[in-house]
Amino acid sequence: MSVKHGLLALLERGPMYGYQLRAAFDSATGGTWPLNIGQVYTTLARLERDDLVAALPENEGQRPYEITAHGRDELKKWFTTPVQRGDRPRDEVAIKLALAITTPGVDVAKVVMTQRTSTMRTLQEYTRLKAQPGDLPWLLVLDAMIFQAEAELRWLDHCEASLVRYEPQAVPVPADVEVPR
Amino acid sequence: MTVLEVRDVHRVHGTGATSVTALDGISLTVGAGELVAVMGPSGSGKSTLLNLAGGLDSPTRGQVLVDGTSLQSLSRKQLAAWRRKRIGYVFQDLNLIASLTAAENVALPLDLDGVRGSRRQAEEALTEVGLDGYADRFPDEMSGGQQQRVAVARALIGERRLVLADEPTGALDSRTGEAVLRLLRSKVDDGAAAVLVTHDARHAAWADRVVFLRDGVVADVSERDQPEELLSTP
């Protein structure tokens, strides 16, 4: 997801100025994705350049923005298009573990355990937040983070079990790399 | 204030060449108002630890203290009475007595000690777990989730200081399972100490501390941070 689509969705509720947008974004994501006001204004400037939002006349020193018809089309397209797995950032934990296994001298079991303890702690905190009352949109965002953390923990358990049976093989050096003598 | 203290406990099943070490020197303390989850693969010693904590099994070496009293120092009869008064259990297989109503099942530990007003306390405990009006139903007239809540009410009734739960959400759907954990959490927030054995990370996450067992020893412990710190992380 981009901040761009987040702001368009918020403006669909009605015109807002920068600080209102930032507050609404914070509230929708439960503060898990803090935006600074600079990001909000930079994004608004780009949205205005692309005719997705329009600036309204200033009111008491604040300039509200509204979504345009073109912006509404873009928003509709965003809501009806699935997010592709490939669009998301690479999983650093998976890459780190793969490299740990093939790097001499690394205690892989310890890498797994350290990650698991950290992810478990995060899951405990999400759960504590969930125990408090909240609106459905925020609770669903929280649930998404809870399920992702749980999935990572299950995968780490799987890694640990696989490592017990693992017999390392010599890692081949790519053929076209010349090793200096 | 410490309610449960497990001191360097070993538990070996069998003797000689065929002996199996289930616990190999575990120490753990659980205070009032604290929920500790125990996780680990099958055979890591989770259930053995819970059985020792509840006096259902004895350590080969080491000590288990509940409210400062060593369970090994009690006679079998004293231990049974001690367990009834102070320790509540919730197991995956609910152990409800089919010929008793929900209220009779819940009141049973109090009745065995001749406590007066047990019926009223049982009804209060059932209300606490959201089963108001179910007091006179038999287990087979209730859903799995409702039966599990009866088991939780039985574990929480009276002045129980220590609650031990072994996969208490085992057969339940995720919503009902979560309701059981909320109950356990709220009992703990009211001052009880609890140990929860589970293989489910989402359930363990309700705990203040998560202990990972591997081959009968504590491999790692996860304690939660303050949520403010978590949310301020960019």
From TrEMBL, chain A:
Keywords on record: DNA-binding
Residue ranges of domain Transcription regulator PadR N-terminal in the record: 7-77
Domain Transcription regulator PadR C-terminal residue range list: 90-163
InterPro entries registered for this protein in UniProt: Tscrpt_reg_PadR_C, Tscrpt_reg_PadR_N, WH-like_DNA-bd_sf, WH_DNA-bd_sf
Superkingdom, taxonomy of origin: Bacteria
One term of GO molecular function: DNA binding
Protein name: DNA-binding transcriptional regulator, PadR family
Organism the protein comes from: Lentzea xinjiangensis
TrEMBL record, chain B:
Keyword ATP-binding appears in the UniProt entry: yes
Source taxon at top rank: Bacteria
GO-annotated cellular components: membrane protein complex; plasma membrane
Keywords recorded for this protein, A-Z: ATP-binding, Nucleotide-binding, Transport
GO MF assignments: ATP binding; ATP hydrolysis activity; transmembrane transporter activity
Ranges that cross the membrane: none
ABC transporter domain span: 4-234
SUPFAM superfamilies: P-loop containing nucleoside triphosphate hydrolases
PANTHER family, sorted: ABC TRANSPORTER RELATED, IMPORT ATP-BINDING PROTEIN
This protein's name: Putative ABC transport system ATP-binding protein
